[in-house]
Each structure stands twice: as structure tokens, then as C-alpha cells.
Design a protein that fits this description.
12 helices; disordered N terminus; binds N,N-dimethyl-L-histidine
Length: 320
């Protein structure tokens, strides 16, 4: 039953995006089990500096974060939205467990397989850690959190996931968080900072082809789940960065004039030669924009943690 609901939402979103002008697809559909695996390959490439930066930040500031999260040594829930492979978060988890901090780790991810893998890993590597795993869209899962536990909470939203939201989604997300986060609860949120075009484009247009595969997997998913016949080899992947606005946009571009049949929609989609599909926004920010965002949703910035190159910031917000 659940599968049917999901499929119809996917079908509806695909129909909306591919009949729009210009065409677009929603990045949340990148993360089926295959897409989540490709994203792990992306995170391991040296060009994708975001992961290294956040590793550095969490490693260098784990003790200070522990003090700021676990004030007054009362039990708290560490809730991660989009936990993925949990590789970076493990830096904090290990440190907190070693220092006998009283907390539960609640991991929320859209990929069931990613959750299962993380659960297995944590059970062997950190058997003393109290964990809870929830699979689903975090917009939907967030509302249930305060019903499930009365503990104070520290939310983690790492990896610049906020950058993948369009402005209206970012507004919806931060408004919803602002409603469920209670006074003195905290949010550690990752932002990729504006920087040189060269560095950014290498990360989003990599020579290994992982980012291309990640984007094409969305078409593969439409083929499989919506009974379509995209010839993925006829699409090339392109990334653009606007240094003023900080927008990094990914596109798949049709290499020829063609029609694609989507069985579930009983419809053909027509492409002109060189017609793009807008696949993803990866917004970059500056510190002033981050400050204004925090303020507009009722938070104060307690501390900004940056890496040595000032490429990335994990910003700790507290609900006023
Ligand atoms: C998950 N998100 C923060 C990634 C990003 O950097 O926007 C997704 C990604 N897309 C291409 N490479 C990585």
C-alpha cells in the first residue's frame, strides 16, 4: 500500500517536472538505495571538499560541541535529519560515548538500506550507544519527535543539505523546525560557503563521473519505477555556479531531439537537442546570510565552527 502511495507521488512529481518549461526533477528522488551508494562515492572523492571540511570541523571541535550539547549533564536526544552513512556523525558519537555523555541517538533517513547499514555498524562499533532509527521523509518524521520523547534535543542537519532546498522549501523546513524545536533546544546546521568557481565546479562536475552517474540514476529510477524508456547515454551532465548569488545548479542536457515514453503516465515527453532538465540546486551561503536566516526563524547563533580553509561552516543555533 505504502509503495503505491510513494509511487504515485513520484509519478505526480515527475509529470509536473517534465511537463514544465524549463523541465525539472526533484533532487529528493536521487536517494534510492543505488543513489545513496553513489552519493557515498561522491563524498569520498577529493574534489568533493565538503566532506573533508566537515570531518575537520567535527574532529577539531568535538570536545567543545560535547560541552555545548550536553550542558547540565541532563539526558538529551541527538536527532540527525538525513543520517546517511553516519560516517561524520560517528566522530561525535564516539567522543560522546567515551566521555559517558547521557544521550540517545535518533537517526532519520529516507533510505531504508542506509539506516540498516548504519544500525549494524553502530551496534558493533558502539554497543553502549542508545539508538533509534526512523525511515522516511524528514518533513513528515519531524512532527512526531516531541510526541515520542520529552527529552531536550540537539538536531543535526549536516553536509549542506539545506543548500538543496529551493527558497520556498527552505522556508517550509526552517519554519517547521522552528515550531517543533523548544526553547534552549539546539540545531547544528551545515552550510557550504561561497568560494571560487573553480573549486566548486570541480566538486560538482567531477572527472570520475560520479556526479553524472548520480544524476543519471534519477532517470534510471524513472525507467524502473515508472516504466519509462530514457536512453541515459544520450544525456550529458552540466554544472553552473553563480558567484554572486551562490547558486550551484546541476542539469542533464539532452544530446539530441528525442521523445521518451513514460508508461506510468501514459505519455511521451519531448526533448529538443540541448534541452536541459534542471536537476539540483546546491546553494552556497555567506556568514551574513546565515546570520539572517537564524534570526528570521527565532534562533540565535551560539557558535560558528569553520574549517581551516573557511570553505564550510557548522553553525550551532539555539532556540530563543
Ligand atoms: C546532499 N547534498 C548536500 C549534496 C550537495 O553537495 O548538494 C548532493 C550532491 N549533489 C551533487 N554532489 C553532491
Amino acid at each position: 500500500m505504502e509503495q503505491i502511495t510513494k509511487l504515485s507521488t513520484f509519478a505526480k512529481d515527475t509529470k509536473k517536472g517534465l511537463s514544465a518549461h524549463p523541465k525539472f526533477l526533484l533532487p529528493k528522488y536521487f536517494y534510492d538505495d543505488k543513489g545513496s551508494k553513489i552519493f557515498q562515492d561522491i563524498m569520498q572523492m577529493p574534489e568533493y571538499y565538503l566532506t573533508d571540511c566537515e570531518f575537520e570541523i567535527l574532529t577539531n571541535h568535538q570536545t567543545e560541541m560535547m560541552q555545548l550539547f550536553g550542558q547540565e549533564s541532563t539526558l538529551f536526544d541527538l536527532v540527525e535529519l538525513g543520517s546517511g552513512d553516519g560516517l561524520k556523525t560517528k566522530i561525535l558519537l564516539k567522543h560522546f560515548v567515551k566521555n559517558k555523555i547521557r544521550f540517545n541517538y535518533v537517526a532519520i533517513d529516507i533510505s531504508h538500506e542506509a539506516n540498516e547499514m548504519l544500525e549494524r555498524k553502530l551496534r558493533t562499533e558502539l554497543p553502549a550507544l542508545k539508538t533509534e532509527f526512523k525511515t522516511g521523509d524528514y518533513f513528515e518524521m519531524m512532527n512526531a519527535l516531541n510526541r515520542d520523547s520529552d527529552n531536550s534535543k540537539v538536531f543535526l542537519f549536516l553536509g549542506s543539505n539545506i543548500g538543496n532546498f529551493m527558497e520556498d522549501e527552505r522556508h517550509r523546513f526552517l519554519s517547521q523546525l522552528s515550531k517543533i524545536i523548544r526553547r534552549n533546544d539546539k540545531l547544528l546546521i551545515g552550510f557550504d560557503l561561497k568560494k571560487s568557481k573553480e573549486v566548486i565546479l570541480k566538486a560538482y562536475n567531477d572527472p570520475h563521473g560520479h556526479t553524472r552517474a548520480f544524476n543519471l540514476n534519477h532517470l534510471v529510477r524513472i525507467n524502473k519505477e515508472l516504466d519509462a524508456n530514457f536512453d541515459t547515454e544520450t544525456f550529458r551532465h552540466v554544472a553552473h555556479y553563480n558567484e554572486d548569488s551562490g547558486e550551484t545548479k546541476s542539469f542533464l542536457v539532452s544530446g539530441k531531439k528525442q521523445s521518451v515514453y513514460i508508461g506510468a503516465l501514459e505519455n511521451n515527453v519531448h526533448f529538443l537537442k540541448d534541452e536541459p532538465i534542471y536537476m539540483e540546486l546546491s546553494q552556497k551561503f555567506d556568514l551574513e546570510e546565515i546570520h539572517q536566516l537564524a534570526r528570521s526563524y527565532g534562533f540565535a547563533i551560539e557558535k560558528n565552527f569553520t574549517d581551516s580553509r573557511n570553505y564550510f561552516v557548522d553553525s550551532l543555533w539555539i532556540k530563543k
